[in-house]
Amino acid sequence: MPAAANDSRIPVAVLTGFLGSGKTTLLRKLLVEPSMNRTAVLINEFGEIGLDHLLVKSVLEGVVVLQNGCICCTLRTDLREGIANIIDSRYSGTFPEFDRIVVETTGLADPAPIVQLLLNNPLVSHYLRLDAVVTTVDAVNGSQQIGEHVEAVKQAALADRLLMTKTDLAAADTIAQLDRLLISLNPGAARHVVANGEIAPDALFGAALFDPSRKTADVRRWINERAYRAQVPGNGHDGHAHDGHAQGRHAHDPHAHDHTEHAHTNGIRACCLTSDEPLSWDAVSAWLARLRKGAGQDLLRVKGILNLIGENAPVAIHGVHHVFHPPVQLESWPDADQRSRIVFITRGIEPSDLHASFVEHVGDARI
Question: pLDDT band at 212, cuts 50/70/90?
Answer without folding.
Answer: low
